[in-house]
Structure formats: structure tokens, C-alpha cells
Sequence to fold (462 residues):
Amino acid sequence: MRVMKVDVLVAEIGSTTTTANAFLLGEKPRFIGQGVSPTTVAQGDVTLGLRQATEDLAHHLGVKDMECFRTMAASSAAGGLSMSVHGLVFDMTVRAAKEAALGAGAVVRMVTAGDLTQSDIEELISVKPKIILLAGGVDYGEKATAIKNARLIADYLERLDDADVLRPPVVYAGNVAARKEVSAILSQKGARAYFVDNVFPRVDELVVEPARKVIQAVFEEHITRAPGMDRIRRMVDGPIMPTPGAVMEACQLLWPLLGDLCAVDVGGATTDVHSVAKGSPEIQDILESPEPLAKRTVEGDLGVHLNAKNVCLEAVDRAERHLGFDPAPLLDSLEMIPREEKQIQFVSYLTKIASETAFSRHAGRIRYLYGPSGRQALASGKDLTGVKTIIGTGGPLTRLPGGRDALARLVGQGPGRELYPKDARTALDTDYIMAACGVLSREYPEEARRILLGSLGLELIP
Fold:
């Protein structure tokens, strides 16, 4: 058996499974294979699972070993990119900051609006976020709240020294007029702080991209210090991104070519929906508050392995009628990668329910108000009416039967679906490499785009 040379190996370290993805670049860049292993965070060393996935990849390729020019990674293991978000008014700066955090691939564990209280600080101690995002106020508007919250956060960070806990960095994306004082407060306590453009600089304007990029950069530095992830740099010499952020990166990579699009990512722990969509001018005119171009929602109750009971309990009766057998006995024995026929049928059904439920939460709504001048329509949330492509990724959608049918159910309007895609094609990430291509695009964007289009079966799009 021989040794194979690989240009780039991209690992995807998930909550339940780890994959190793091999790519060749050059004039005809291509994906050449994937290895899979259970994730080994519980064993205290995530590299064990990564080594096993790499060995599985070598086995599938029929080689003894591989030499990799570059090794990169995406990770949602060890709790992923957990964050807390603190702003002034929930419907304005807090929501804008949360959009930036989610778009970066974060799991938002705590959200506060207005002045932080002592009970908020106690919750912060319990949550233990890896990054704290502090916002508040439009530029040159109210700044007292951001300054007060900076003091309380700085005091909280100082307390962590006594507990021998790693200090999370602070990203400030609030009122520019308060930046100098916030900086002085945080630096006095020795906090690591990053300053970016205000996420809500003016009323009805969102600016989330600068914060999103900095959050991902901070994550890359911090993830190697997380429990179970501290040895990751021994095997990875390139970028490390949060997996949801890598999927969003891939969506943005495709948007200039495909136009408005969505990606549904069903996983073992969560179901994420990503959209890059401008929406229609007609809906923009009646939108109650602005939406970012690139939006992600994460549903922590809809994972089809760790949260299978949550998904099933919403439709347990329908599940039995649909499947022809009672799935309840399977709930406590689901395999991470189902192989038995009843488990495959059951997880495929859960995948369909998770996709539909997560998509309904991601899409916006239209409501009607009645007054002296008659009926007035108001829209809230993300307008997906102009979406032309819905992509399915994640193991359950791409590796089990019924993935394309699950996506097809997300197309078409009706009561409660006024902002759903009107007429969209569906595409499955058949190689299950969307997150890997998002990471790959950091250094090889054109190659990543071409490889991903091949996985989607869209390589002939002009």
C-alpha cells in the first residue's frame, strides 16, 4: 500500500461525529474522499477522533497513509463557539449583535438588554461564554449603558482570575462615542478587547459583517484552549472555524453565482438554517425592522441524535402513522450513524420534521393591522420569497434517504408561508463537504467554489 499526497485535509469536528475531507487543487480542483469517526471530546482529546477519521479516509482511498500540504478544520465540539450578547434595546442593538454572533457560527447562551444586574453577572458565571459581545446605542446616542455594562463585565473577568478560569475576550460593537471609555475600563482590568464597527450605527441600519469576522478570528485563537480541543493544533496548521460559520462562509461564496439562497443543516445536536437573500423590494417597504443580508438561525431543540426526543415529541402520533411502527422504543438507542432499517427510517423522518420546523422559525411572517384606512400589511423577519436555491447539508440530509423530498417541502407559499420561497430548486451537498469548503475558501476561494458546486450537482451553472 502506498502513501498519497493531499493538497488540503479539512477536518469537521462535530458534536457527535468527526469527518476528514481530502482535496486536490491545481487546474482541476476536486474532492477525493472522506473518513468518519465518532467525536472524542468526552475522552478529553478531540484529536483521537480526528486520527480515526483520517485512518478511515486512508482506508477508503486504499492507501497506507497520507501526506497533507495543509490541514484545516471546522469545529462545533466542546460546546462550539458559545457567546453572551449584551446591548441596550432588545429590538435594536441586542438583536443586531445577536445576528452578528449567530452569523459567525456562535451558540448564543445568554442575551441581556439594558443595564446588567447582579443576577445577570451570576448567570454569566454559570454560562461561561467563550466570547462576550458588548453593544449598545446608535453612534453618538445613549452611551451610559454600554459604559456601565463594560465596568460590570470587567469586574466579572477580574473575578475569573481567582477561579483559575480562562478569561473570555470581549468584542465591543456599540456606540462609537463610548469606545474610548469602554477601552479604558477593560484595559485597566487586563481584559482582551476587540473593537469593531457598531452593529446598529443608525436607526434602521444593521452592520454585522465586521463583528462577524472578528468573532470568527477570536474563536480560532480561543478554541485551541477549550477542554478537549487543546491538542488540536498538533494536527491542524491552517484556519480553524466554527462549523456553522464555515457553512455561512460557503453560502456567501455561492451567492454571487446563484443569487438568493438558503442552506438547511440538520445535525445530531442542532438544526441550522442559513440564508443569503436580499428579498423583494415590495416586502422591504413593509418590513418592521431591518434584516441582515446573511442570516443564521440555530435550533438547539432539533438535533436528530442528541435531541431526538424533542423532535419526536412534537409529532409522535404522526410519526407512528407515517412509519407504520411505534418509534418510541428506538429513542434511547439511536446510533450516531444509523444502520438498522427501522432506525434509518426513523431518523429520516426526524430529519424531515427538523427541517420543516427550523425553516418555519427562520422565515419571516406577514401580519395585518386594521384601522380607519383599512387593512395594512406589515412584515417581520427574513424575506425568502426571492430564494432560487435551497441546499441541504449535514449527515442526516445527505447520507440518509429522503433528503431531497424534505427540502422540496420548503418551497411554495400559503397561510403562514407568505415569505417562503415561491419557486426554488433543491440541491443536496452529496459529498457532505459544505462546511469543509467554507474553511477551504479562506485560502482557496475559487477552488472551494468549484468543488462545492460539483457536490451540489450545479457545476454547469454559467
